[in-house]
Amino acid sequence: MLRKVHLVALIASLASGSALAQTIGSNGYWVYGQCSKPLGDVNYVPNAALCVRFLQGVFNTLVNNPTRGVPCFPSNLTMGQLKDVVTEYVGDKDKPERLQYSATSVVESAWGESFSCQR
Known about the structure:
disordered N terminus, mainly alpha
């Protein structure tokens, strides 16, 4: 019984996309690899699923923890648009150092720049 409890706790801790990315020690390369393909491309379903799950985890962390400085997200924003913003940010050929940033910081920085409240 105790094993089942530990397994449930482990699964619950990995349910957050942020926890998933940090667990596997990912960075901008991981984000780009998982998120650079179109969401509807059936050849990349596992990548798209990991990408969306991770982005949802970061999004939920930001909106549920306002002390982190939540970007001003438009109300009609889609997950595809959030993904595209991140992919464009990390794939900027003029700023290859972004590939070395942690996965979470890449996403937070991309969304912070694109959805700044200071417009």
